[in-house]
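Sample entry (310 residues):
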Amino acid sequence: MTTQELPAAALAARPGQPAFSIVIAAVNGYAPLAGCLAAIERIPERDRAEVIVVDRCNVGGRIKREFPETTVVIVSPAMTIPEMRSLGIRASRGEWVIVTEDHCEPRPDWLRQFAAAASGPWDVIAGAVENGRRDRLVDWAAFFTEYSEYMAPRPSGETPDLPGMNTAYRRAALDAVPGLIEASLWETFLHTRLREAGARLYSASDVVIDHCKSFGYREFLGQRFHLARSFAGMRLRGAPLPKRIAYGLAAPALLVILPYRTLTRIWRKGRHRRELLLSAPILVSFFASWAAGECVGYLFGEGDSSRKVE
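Predicted structure, serialized as tokens:
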């Protein structure tokens, strides 16, 4: 079987059931989402997948007019991204559920590469993330802050660490953990629960998506704080006060840990070193915002930060 023949076989789901369901949380308005959906429509295997947009920003009507094959689920503006993903997964029918974000644009071979990896013994498959906004240092800093670990080159193989927006889940693995989807967790905790249940996670280097969002400096500072507070609050949800205090007091150490990890990762990959050095002052401020968010989240919980993450 050749590489070109493999996806057609791998995408052959049960009659009436799509092989893949693509779930997109729409939180950034029409333009980024339209770019994402247009990229999906250009994929040769598009007809083998259903696309579900969970919309909290009131663009569903326009999406249905311009992308009529897309299923749109309208939700409250107060719904969090993990809750939206959960709802989209529960509404989906595919043997595999791919979760992505509205400002990400997949490459033309995206589904074919997912299908190739899905022929293996894996329960969760995720690929690489590349920067699709390269003109401004603030966008490089934002990309490095979130995705330095996942940008190419990233070796293929079993791994405990996968991104949350270029990721496919075998439905049987999700169904094997009662209450998992209903818990509406960020991917870090979702993947941990799956691994604890025996699921196998795989990094597929050929599955590539472009991160195509430009940020204002203050906008991304706020996003880092709210995501970090949401993450920390979810991590210690229900934990006793002494544990929360201990984690909160340790959070400032992230001001050293995060820059070190990012520098070594990017230098080791041998790409975008110049952009890293030029954006370093911005990058450090983003890490400071993250450290502050984690500190607040550990000490005081999530608050309403989960609803502010975009």
